[in-house]
Structure formats: C-alpha cells, structure tokens
Amino acid sequence: MLPRPMNEAVIAEFDTIVEVATALRPIMVAAHIVLRNLNELQKFAREHQKASSITQLKFDVGWAIQFKIDACRHMLNILSSFRAFLDHCDSYLCENYGKNSKERVRFKTETSRQYDTSNAYRFLSKLRNYAQHSSLPISHVNVSVKLNHPEKSFATELQLRLDRDTLLSWDRWGAITEEVSKMDKSIEILPIFEEMDKSVNELAATIFSERADELLRCQDYLERVSAILKAPEGAILVVWVGDHKSDGTPPGHTELFPVDELRLINEAMGSVLQV
Predict the structure, then answer these.
(1) CA 9 vs CA 13, 14, 17, 219, 245: distances in Å
(2) For a 10 Å CB count at each end of the chain, is N or C smaller?
(3) d(CA 17, CA 216)
(4) Nearest to 143 by CA among 155, 159, 164
C-alpha cells in the first residue's frame, strides 16, 4: 500500500480520536492476561484429565511432582494476574477521574456486586490471599486408576482438586469461612475458575462503558479512514510521524491504528450486553 501524506491538522485529529483506545489499552491488556491464563489452565486440565491406558501400574514420583508444579503455576498465574487487573483498573480510575470520582465509585460498586453474587469471585479472592500468604493451592495430586476389561490395562486420570480441610487450616477466610466449610471435601477447582471469565469481562466493561461514546466515534473514524485508503482485509494501518530522513525511508516514529484494541474492547462489552 502506498503511503498517503497527512498534514498536522489530520494527525492532530487522529491523535485526539484514537486517544481513547490508547488510554484503555492497559486495562484491555491486563484483562486479557487473566483470560489467557484461564485458557491455559483449561488446556492443561483437559490434557491431563483424559484417561490414558497403561499396561503396568507404575508411577513416576517425578511425573506427579511436575504435574503439581505446573498446576500450581497455572493457578497462581490466574490469581496473581486477576489481582493485578483489579489494581490496574483502580489506578486508571484514580489517575483519570480522581479517588472520589463517580466513575471509581461505580467500579467499586461493581466489584462489590461481583463479591455478593458470584461464589467463584468470593472464593478465588480469598484463595489468592491463601496462595500468596499461606500455602500452595494444591496440597496433593489426585490420580484415579481403573482396570479395563478385557484389555487388562489401567486407565489413569489426573484431577485438579483442592482439599477443603487443608484450606480451612488457614484462619483468614473471614466472612466466607462457613461457606468454604460447606464445600465438598475434595473441591473440583476448574468449574470455579471458569466462572472468572464472566467477572473479568463485566469488570472491564464497567470501565470501557465510561467512554462508550468516544469508543464508537473512534471505531467509526477508523472504519471511514480504512475505506478511504481501500485497505485490504488484514492490512496493518500505520501513521508515520515526522520528516523523512531520506527518500524512500519513512520517519522513525510510527503510530498504529488501534484496530485490535477496539476489537478486543468491543468483545468484552459485547459479551456483557449479550448476558
């Protein structure tokens, strides 16, 4: 695609309109780090929950330890990135609207609603503190073994479960202590983590919605510019800013059209609207 010259007024207009996508980028990235960590845990669990057949009942202790290490690593990644996501949201609101702003109050109200209505949100918020300050979330590895007939082989399956009584040995569950005590003795953790997906999108959408009109304007602007440039599908639109150092060499400073940011932001907002 041939470059098109843009004067200072056009560049200023571009910067003003796309500023919203740039400003919200850290929130979008933080949210998708959590979602990506969730996807990786789900993939890890699926790989190990598939029953595999063996002809001899023989286990490698190192293999079980590696499973525990990887399981804890995935879970800690989710819990830590979710806490970071919440902190980044709060920092963004304080810096852009103020500590006592209605925007920050609205977000705090949404986090309170999540805590009150989502069992997973409550439990995982406390589990993060447990994993950070007390012990690893998985205290032991559960392996189920079943003898297959007539193949005379064993089907093995690894499971991601938490031991309720081990968790309760920690005395800082606070208001949800009774709730945890009523959970199954062996807690299946994957379904609980999977509920976090909804909370992340709803919390991110709470922030994105504060600038919904600007996001719509930005999207309309980028669509019109793309149509004018007749950009082929999948093309990366770039604005080069500054003077050419030499003929045929673009300036060193570039600004990308925030197409991907808008797509991911719209997905988060759309997933909430469809609920």
Answers:
(1) 6, 9, 12, 20, 22
(2) C
(3) 10
(4) 159
**pTM of the full predicted structure?**
0.82
CA atoms within 13 A on the CB side of 152: 0
Reported as a single tens digit per residue, the pLDDT across 69-83 is 999 999 999 999 999
Residue 231 · residue 73 · CB < 8 Å: no
**Around Cβ 236, how many Cβ atoms within 10 Å?**
10
The residues that bridge with 161 in the sheet, in sequence order, are 188
pLDDT in tens, 192-238: 999 999 999 999 999 999 998 998 888 888 888 777 777 777 666 66
Give the mean pLDDT of 27-41: 95
The confidence score (pLDDT) of residue 2 equals: 46
- Distance CA(170)–CA(130), nearest Å, equals 7
Tokens encoding 196:
């976090």
Note the helical H segments in the chain. 8-49, 61-96, 102-117, 119-133, 164-168, 177-181, 190-194, 196-208, 212-229, 259-273
Separation of alpha carbons 243 and 234, rounded Å: 27
Coil vs helix vs strand at 147: strand
